[in-house]
Amino acid sequence: MSDAAQGAAAQPLKPALVREINRALLAWYGASARPLKIRERSDPYGVLVSEVMAQQTQISRVDQLATAFLERFPTLEALAEAETAAVLVAWKGLGYNRRAVALQRAAAVAVAAGGLPSSVEALMALPGIGPYTARAVAAIAFRGREIPVDVNIARILNRLLGSSTPLSPREAQARANEFGSQLADGEAGTWAQAAMDLASTICRPVAPLCDRCPLHQRCASAGQPFHKEPRTATPRTPFAHTRRWLRGRLLDELREAGREGISIAGARGVHNEVAVAATISAMVSEGLAESLGGDRYRLPHRGD
Ligand code: SF4
């Protein structure tokens, strides 16, 4: 049993063990990093865009779409000054479109302040930037020392520690900081990218590939199968019946229509006119659409 296995999650790991894990993880990443195009951009703006996109969207899809987005809006200033309509068109395929509006607002605030800030606290003060994204940008682009923790990195931490109950977000961050404290300046971002790759390819949620894991010798959970929890059967709402489908359908219509916009008259799929009107109204309040008067709407533009 490793040192990690002997301690409850509340006990700090020995610094020597933390350093061993850090070395093993970084060495593995040096040899096995996924070849992602988005990692070629380590400037603060490029990292911010890819990290916002990676929230709730698979990294393979982000990798396909981020390059085109960054070509269309190559700088923080270009994004801040763009028509929101153009940003939403370029966001097509990534889903959760409110992120695009928030990202542009964050760019505008940062440009007004002279550029993207480097501290976690100042990044978190930007619209739509939460603790994970702020720490990821600070660590990867500004050589910050705090490791960002999302569900994937939290899973690795839980398993390394052999924690019998999932760590709270605060505990997981404190544990990640133990690893960060033993890293050299500028390595926290690499550590986070390495852990994300490990979580995706080896330390998977179910049936992790422990025999291929670089942390196998030092992990309190090595060899555990981690079966899928049986779910109670609840009837699933067909996707086309959901509000999310309707929002996506309306946004696609708005993207296609350009400045002339669309009429929202009529049903969309199983959604009647009342549901369509309520949905477009919510989209207006979220900055995803603007009214042209009557039943006509378009993506947000400046003037005519
Ligand atoms: S040994 Fe297994 S459980 Fe532990 S970090 Fe590696 S893949 Fe995950």
Please identify the structural class as seen in this structure.
mainly alpha
Number of helices: 14
On the 0 to 100 scale, the average pLDDT is 93
Which small-molecule species are bound to the chains here?
iron/sulfur cluster
CATH class group of the largest domain: Mainly Alpha
CATH homologous superfamily caption of the largest domain? Hypothetical protein, domain 2
The name CATH uses for the topology of the largest domain is Endonuclease III, domain 1
| Extended strand count | 3
Report Rg: 22 Å
The assembly state of the depicted protein chains is: single chain
Strands in their spatial order, largest beta sheet = 1-3-2
The total number of structural domains is 2
What profile does the largest beta sheet have? 3 strands, antiparallel
Give the CA-based shape: globular
> At CATH's second level, what is the architecture of the largest domain?
Orthogonal Bundle
Instruction: Report the sheet-strand fraction.
Output: under 5%
> N- to C-terminal separation?
69 Å
Q: Write the H/E string, N to C.
A: HHHHHHHHHHHHHEHEE
Uncertain residue ranges: 1-10
Fold and architecture overview:
By secondary structure, the protein is an all-alpha fold. It folds into 2 domains: 1-230, Endonuclease III, domain 1, CATH 1.10.340; 239-298. The chain contains 14 helices and 3 strands. It has a 3-stranded antiparallel beta sheet with strand order 1-3-2. The longest helix is centred in the first third of the chain and has 18 residues, at 15-32. The termini are far apart. Mean pLDDT is 93; it is low at 1-10. Iron/sulfur cluster binds next to helix 10.
